[in-house]
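Consider what follows.

. . .
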Amino acid sequence: MNDQKGGNDIVFGRNDEFWRKMRRLCANHILISKRVRSHQAIRHNEISRLVRSIAACPSGSFINLSEELLNLSNNITAFSKLDFCRLKLDRVADKILREHKAKLGSKASNDEVEDLTDALLKIQDVGTLPFPLSDNHIKAVVNDTMFAGSESSSRAMKWAMSELVRHPAAMKKVHREVRKAFNDGVEQKEESLLRGKLTYLQKVVKETLRLHPPSKCVLTKLQSQQTISKLG
């Protein structure tokens, strides 16, 4: 996969100077709390849409929650317009890049929430990095985000739901806390919910991530030189 991206991505890139700079770029300019907070309206709209969709289902009917949670993650990361099954990764990233370049500079773009691709294009335009940020670099980061962002988030939510089903007492505590926080259906802002109102739910999320890490790739480090002798 790294060869297909020309060594430009972060997830499968080589641990060299370029990789460290790209990683620092994402940590300092992209994956920051201010940018996460700026997407609050998107999260609110997509979660509300999912809740309304589930509430509209007839009593006794079934819903594929795994599929719905994956769609939710994709929608929040702003990739809902694309069909991943029919488009190759590079074509998907090309389409995203073209749409965002066309949007930049237009009057309509001023009212829209800046997403990951917008931020990378602005950094590319300013040119203050110690290395040139090419379109291929941006596409590689976008591809990483598609899978590292959407798939891992939906997987974590599915594991959290599964663990709560297995532990009814914890499920009851979460239900009670959520109902109290929303005060019988009154909508709450994200900041107020995270400010001490859903402490038990946050513990459930952290424990889920501890038990079921979203990423299957665990990097190991050799602490000392070891010699394994033949057995028998």
In short: The chain is about 60% helix and 0% strand. Residues 17-62+86-146 form one domain. Residues 163 and 208 are 8 Å apart (CA to CA).
